Amino acid sequence: MSLRLLSVTSELHPLIKTGGLADVAGALPPALVAHGVETRLLLPAYPQVLRAFADSKLKAVHSYKALFGDPARLLAAKLNGLDLLLLDSPSLFATRDGGPYADLTGHDWSDNWRRFAALSAVAADVAAGAVKGWRADVVHAHDWQAAMTAAYVRHGRAPDTPVVLTVHNLAFQGRFDAGIFPQLGLPDSAWAVDGVEYYGGVGFLKAGLQYADAITTVSPTYADEIRTPAFGMGLDGLLRGRGDAVHGIVNGIDDREWDPATDPHLARSFSARSLGGRTANRRAVEKRFGLKRGASRDGGPIFALISRLTWQKGIDLIVDAIEHIVAHGGRLAVLGSGDAAFEGALIGAAARHRGQVGVVTGYDEPLAHLMQAGCDAILIPSRFEPCGLTQLYGLRYGTIPVAARTGGLADTIIDANDAALSAGCATGILHPPASGEALKAAISRAIALHSSPDLWQAMRRQGMRGDYGWGRGSARYAALYRSLADRNRTA
Known about the structure:
Blueprint: E1 3-8, H1 20-32, E2 37-44, H2 47-50, E3 59-67, E4 70-79, E5 82-88, H3 90-93, H4 112-127, E6 138-142, H5 143-147, H6 149-154, E7 163-167, E8 175-176, E9 197-198, E10 201-203, H7 204-211, E11 214-217, H8 220-225, H9 236-241, E12 246-248, H10 278-289, E13 302-309, H11 315-327, E14 331-338, H12 340-352, E15 357-361, H13 365-374, E16 377-380, H14 390-397, E17 400-404, H15 407-412, H16 418-423, E18 429-431, H17 436-450, H18 453-464, H19 471-490
Parallel strand pairs: 1-2, 1-6, 2-5, 6-7, 7-11, 11-12, 13-14, 13-16, 14-15, 16-17, 17-18
Antiparallel strand pairs: 3-4, 4-5, 8-10, 9-10
């Protein structure tokens, strides 16, 4: 029997992306088909989303005379096999100078509470049958932007519909002033410690954690970490109280799009059996970033950094380690954007070390693919990392992760210690998080291993043989959905 799932997300690859959420939201639904789960995805109709469709491909399936005060429509569309519902509300999602959540200076849009409360309220309406002929058996909401869906479902027309909330990053919580509560359209009873109230204000993510039937995080280790004060961001008590409603399921990647044997963004394709094509990609990376080949035939290892440039991602640790990389014969290629101070420090390092450090600011999807195919190792010194997809892309492409032992990084990388190297199962290098000295030591380990080509190639091949798709993860999600739907039917 087919199960109807409504997935609610604020971004979706390839339409709009700021991070891994978009990749997950786009890659999970196709994998669920094999398990009898039919997914409809609800997301905002940002201008860049609407531009992807001709008007003839959009069909209005529901309308609002006043959604949080202004007219809005739900538009149905299909893209690459995905069944979409787009919330078209110009007052909330029309063109703005900046990204989906913040302006060009990085300041959050002042009406974010209204924008994503509207998305969540509409999700509850769709779950209850607002789109003729379709009603959700289960709702899956992603992160704080969709977390209020659980509150609107509980206090709406479909209070028995199960809701799953996935926390992609607990650090982003959607906290707002108490003054917005009267405008949310929720009953007075929702203003409570076991409702949406959070330290005297409104907590969108907190409300979702409180009301959802099940909570998932994107790796088992992160599920454990966020129930501790060190990683719980003030919500560890609530998460501990939810007990076995909290599940850790490792993210997968779209292994059709991320396949070095067929990737159109590469200078040359390759596979675990035939790694020769990596050389052409290495040369392309050197050319793009202005890196010298070095004194030896291939030079030292090229370390990649593909990341948001933020404190969470440990960028300050990388800035501090650049001299260490260069002094030991390594090179560094950086692709990313974020904190202006970090951008400036990396650009300054590139100016000081021409030919050894290269920086491209912003985000370039084809270039990210090329870097994974042409660099030797990828640096991921995150202070915390719910799952991470970058290391999975690296493993798939033979770019060995040098990463902090935290969250999903710890769950997906096998450290190259003596036992793992002897057994032939090592896939990367792990180090303690939040330590500049530990990162430098890990970089030194990588450079030493790279100087032993047979060992390095063996690690590459071992990583590339892994299964990083959604096979196991989608099966776990489908089983969770069905258990909630069955429980609802028998209640």
